[in-house]
Design a protein that fits this description.
The complex is a heterotrimer of chains A (322), B (283) and C (439). With 322 residues, chain A is mostly helical. Chain A has 14 helices and 4 strands. Chain A is globular, with a radius of gyration of 20 Å. Chain B has 283 residues and is mainly α. Chain B is 78% helix and 3% strand. Chain B is built from 11 helices and 2 strands, in the order ααααββααααααα. In chain B, strand 1 and strand 2 form a beta hairpin. Chain B is globular and about 60 Å long. Chain C has 439 residues and is of the alpha/beta class. In chain C, helix 2 crosses helix 11 and helix 4 packs parallel to helix 5. In chain C, strand 8, helix 9 and strand 9 form a beta-alpha-beta unit. Classes of the chains: A mainly alpha (322), B mainly alpha (283), C alpha/beta (439). Chains in contact: A-B, A-C, B-C.
Chain lengths: 322, 283, 439
Amino acid sequence: MILSKISHFGFVLIFGLVLLVLAVLPFFVDLYYQTFLIELFVWVLFAISFDLIFGYTGLLSFGQALFFGLGSYTVTIFVRKFGFNTELSLFLSIVIPILFAWFVGYFSVKLTGIHFAIITIIFAMIGNIIGETWTSFTGGSDGLTFSPPPFRLGLLSVDMMDIKSNYYFVLAIVAISYLFLRRIVQSPLGKVFISIRENEERVQLIGYNVQRYKLVAFIIAGGLSGLAGGLYSLTLKYAGASYLHWSVSGHAVVYTVVGGMGTLIGPALGAGIIMSLEHYLIDILQTTDLVAGIVLVFMILVAPKGLVGYIQSMLKKGETSA
Amino acid sequence: MISNLAVAILNGIVWGLMMALIALGLNMICGLLYIINMAHGALYMLGAVVAWYLIELTGNFWIALIIAPLCVGVIGILMEKGLLRTIEDKPIMTIICTFGVMLAVQELVLIVFGGSPRRIDAPITYCFPLFQLQYPLMRVVIAAISGLVMAGLWFFLRKAKYGLWMRAVVQDREMAVAIGIPVTKVYMWTFALGSALAAFSGVLAATIVSVEFMMGREVLIMAFIIVIVGGMGNLEGSVLAAIMISLIQGVGSLFVPPSIAMVFALAFMILVLLIRPQGLFGE
Amino acid sequence: MEAKKRKPKKAQGLLTKKVSRRDFLKTTAVGAAGLTLGSMAFTPFTYGAEPPIKIGMFNEYTVFATEYGYWMGKVGRTAIAKMNEEGGIAGREIELFDYDTKCKPAWGASMFKKMILEDKVDMIMGSIHSGVHKACFPLAEQYKTPFFSGGAMTYEFTGKDAIPYYIRNHSHARSQAVAGWKWGFDNLGKKWTFLVADYAWGHSLAREFGSRIRAAGGKTQEIRAPFATADFVPFLQKVDHDTEVLFTVFLGSASLAVLRQTVELGLHKRLKRFTVICTTEGIGQKVVGKESAGAYYIEYHPRHLDQVPKELHPYEIPYRKACGVDDDGNEVGNPKVAIAGSHMWSMWVYPYMIKQGIEQTGWKNSKKNADLIKAICSLKLKAGPWCPVGDLDMREQDHQGFADFYISRVEPDLKLKVLARIPKEKAIYEPEVDLRKKL
């Protein structure tokens, strides 16, 4: 009881602290480090959106790349081909993936387990094929570049070409998304998700329309994956068909498992650790997939609840023994 | 047009049988052990790579065809014993664990074997005339081998002691332990057999597609689709599913651009999954 | 990395450098090797107090197309090391930074940023992946960093999508088509089928060759197959019965499979196989297999030494020796590793072009990048130790380079025999942009 009160206060404190540190960081680190962090924020968003359906609802989807890619292409194409402004395009990068997630999810949630995973992969494969071959629209694997105009909201104007502005912009959006997801998983809705993960049959028996709840989770995750893709393209000023490949979804799986599924902070941590390892190891080791694979296997066997889970279980042990 | 259709149908069946063989190892492990082996494609690739080294050493394809699967079977045993034993009953865990193995194995092969594709010469190079074209006999041979292997496996599972043990373990694990079946051994040997089959199909496929560290990636998804659509553990089902996918793609490519044909094949798979999630022939 | 750290030696100034290069140009094949070693030993030079010139390089070392990355990287490092031994550029040492693109546009762009923001490089060269290049365009523009293409084949990069900071000294889909279509049309046949991988590179080669064939009255057919196709039977059987030339465009194992299966189906008996060397660079015809005998390739630099034009041998031989390549176009000591000979020369020539540009404009730092690029893109290089491909003309309007092409055929012994040399003038097409105003 006390632990949960402390944990809530603790969360606010830690979140605030982390945010503060991240906010002042640009004054102390070089530009490359800032661009690295921006990419990290994007992948954190992708990972936590995956955590919602996998960690909390128990749906293993290897198809999230489809929504990420859709989001990134939405922003790029609407700015470049239709001349929309950045705000509207970014907004659409949430909306359009939501629509697709609705469609894909509607069919997919009728299945469970490996069947669900396979069907999501198949949808992603279809998206990938279309992206690669419809080169006149998507630029195929070469991709499309574009120059986004500044993002305008009321009096606020963010210049996407300026790294620092870009940094704060992405940080703000990801932080808000994180809080949004946290709100959801702690709400009654979130509790239903967790129940579905734990015992789907029982939830159905109590009277909940399990498929509908799964669809809701899937749609939210799809929208946030799309947002991640949109932010990614705004940062890189580029979108390419390679983002639609199902192996991109694999990143989210790795980050979530390593960090700790069903915790939100776990995937964020996982993304941070793995991406930092990747960037710092390249001077020593060019083969980061090897390390990622070994780490993944290690984590699953030794600490299946991920780092966060491990820490949590340590704390719990401490509490009971005290 | 008739000749085109005839070639497409023949090739669809032949290629379908090949794909069914590739999916066979996965089918066994999925159907009997309920382990989702994402590393299946990597094992398939390892079979081809090991065979390549063996052929370099001995110059004999058939030796490599026998020995490479044995080597990979050993790797399969190591995988099962060392990594999967503690998580065998948790499907999500096994998916992720084997996914990690896939990543690591692929990179390792890249480092050791290199990134460029190499070839394995087919032992049979005769091509028989077929309408206005020729058709390589090797493909037909592979399809025949595939059929034989699957038939052999079917008999093994129905008649041989070990096969019966495997089926018993699947049906009721506790009861199997009670009767005195060495369940852990069964798991281990099943996984070894599944890995060896993956490697076996890799060696054969390499005579057509060449050996490359990435060759498992595309194959993996196709294998999964075949297994799921055919019904996990259902041999006849996967043969039918493989041939169906192959035919749709092959015949479809005659009329529409192949990427579209592929999209159709995939969409068809989605339909099957939705309408009959237990697979075409599953229970 | 070979080029990074060197201790400065005692000076004898620019005179010594000039002498060694002149001697170089005079020698014959055998003498060149000895003289190279000699000149390197007897050419002391100094690196003064000026900071080094930083050049960034990135290539596909892992994931895919690694046979390209291996050679591009090797030649790039060797070239920079050699240039440093000869005195660097304008008396300044060259510091090379080398990264992997992992064949991913996002990662490549990340490394591009790292080189600019962290390593503070002055310019960047390398990579053959068009997606990586595209993703780096916004960065090159934003940071005004010259980006020298290692080997991207997308024509539009020096066409309608061109940016002023991109420079390309090698060929691409359009220049290959402009140079090669006529020989194929006249010698192989007038009815072509393009069997290409269904993505940008495949489409562009089919379009560039196809449009010219049709304009000359020939007939074309296009069949697109997925990039990683293993079974080509469904596609090969769609090839028109009266087709005379089968032009295939695939990479990796698919390129091996298509050549092999074309023969297995017996198509080679009634048509000629034609493709660009890009499809089998770094792989070697022995690996492609004996089925490839009789196939025709467009090369940008012959793989075998005895096929290289005689007048280029004085430069070709030391170039091969320095890069560890034997006369057969394989790695010295590693006969199974074939070179990416038609592509890797770009990395040898770029440092020289950069050197020329810097010494011509008196470039000291990025403030003069625009002038540097203008100078580099006006270069008309003559065949030489730093330009073993022969004469190379850069074009100012679109920053595109033009060199000779070769049409080769695979002999029964699997050697690539040059049948025709297509002079660079035949590869010229109308520029689609004028970048001179944009710098």
